[in-house]
Design goal:
The protein has 206 residues and is mostly beta strands. It has 1 helix and 16 strands.
Length: 206
């Protein structure tokens, strides 16, 4: 009968604990970004973001919109876009981390190196989870805040969005919120004044 040295036994236990913890994190965490769920890609000269439905917009680093595309289809690793006004096609290839470019349905060439990708942005988010509750889009421009027990506590109207945030207003209390997905904070203000960090965002869905 073989016996592991005490140090080896400790190492085996450590590896098993790490694998179990890693599995738990993978289950609890958000899904990896892939061709099926991506909504935003960043590159050195700008970004391309899903702005609603099948519409995507390319932005420069200044935030100015440059071109508009319609999504034609997706697969496990890529999103395929078409600009019919210029007869230009893009492939957002998350496996190779390149935006490739083609014309008139012909072969594509690498155009932009993808430096970052997100599955949820300020333009697509519909729910944010905080430690003590969540904010959920309930229809149209309506949002509701729920406490940790699932009870609805406040109602808001969406007043605007940008690449990383949704802006909400509760006219009955004159309270404004910003759901800031870049900093991962819900910020709070009153009467149109400055905002302060209120809730740390732990996850978001779109």
């Amino acid at each position: 009968m073989h016996r592991f040295p005490q140090a080896s036994a400790r190492l085996v236990l450590f590896v098993l604990a790490f694998l179990v913890a890693g599995s738990s994190i993978a289950v609890a965490g958000s899904s990896p970004v892939n061709g099926r769920n991506v909504a935003f890609v960043q590159f050195q000269d700008g970004s391309i973001a899903q702005t609603g439905g099948r519409t995507w917009v390319e932005y420069g680093n200044s935030g100015a919109a440059r071109f508009s595309f319609q999504e034609t289809h997706r697969d496990d690793w890529s999103v395929y876009l078409n600009d019919s006004s210029r007869n230009i096609q893009l492939q957002l290839d998350l496996h190779r981390k390149w935006v490739s470019y083609g014309e008139d349905g012909g072969p594509k060439r690498d155009l932009y190196r993808i430096t970052d990708a997100k599955s949820v942005t300020g333009r697509t988010v519909t729910s944010v989870q905080m430690q003590n509750g969540k904010l959920l889009k309930t229809g149209g421009s309506a949002w509701s805040e729920y406490d940790a027990n699932g009870k609805r506590v406040y109602n808001f109207q969406e007043t605007g969005r940008d690449a990383w945030s949704v802006y909400l207003n509760d006219a009955s209390r004159n309270v404004q919120l910003q759901l800031d997905l870049h900093r991962k904070w819900v910020t709070y203000g009153e009467s149109g004044g400055p905002k302060r960090d209120l809730y740390k965002i732990t996850s978001a869905e779109g």
